[in-house]
Amino acid sequence: MWGELFKTFEHTAFRLEVRDTYSSPAEQEPLRRYVETGDLDQEWRAGWFEQLAGWHRAGQRFHRVRVVSVPLTTYSEWGMHIAARSNEAGDDIRYLDRANAGDLPDHDYWLFDSRLVAKMHFADDDEFVAFELIEDPALIVEHNYWRDAAWHQAITRDEFAAKHSQQR
Length: 168
What we know:
By secondary structure, the chain is α/β, with parallel strands linked by helices. The chain has one domain (2-164): Endonuclease, Chain A (2-Layer Sandwich). The protein is built from six helices and seven strands. Strands 6-5-4-1-2-3-7 form a seven-stranded mixed beta sheet, with helices on both faces. Helix 4 runs antiparallel to helix 6 (157-164). The longest helix is centred in the last third of the chain and has 17 residues, at 137-153. The mean pLDDT is 95.
């Protein structure tokens, strides 16, 4: 069902990311290499970049706002560096300092076509474990409001990186 959400949206997919750390088996080795050597190789994400480019060619748009604590965690710093290639592939990733986040929610979610919310749930070790579909109109309006508020406050990845990138 999770994968179907990305196959069936028509126009837009928006993600609000509010965690400072995420854990995924696919990211463990690339993150370890980054920590130890500064390596930013992203061949492990080639399939994702191809999907993004296909959606972009089809007129479907991906947007995200990452709410991050400053100073950045190692994970957030790594994510900021690798977001440059995601942006090139069609995933418009923006950043928002948590100190400026106002009344945004404390949960991650995807909002598909402004009408379907997939609220994300994570384990104590920061690994994604499940999602909850929200179809209640009042809650969908609330998530649209949060999307708009976050987008209005966020700055581009490049602007954020210029202010907060640490030299390696």
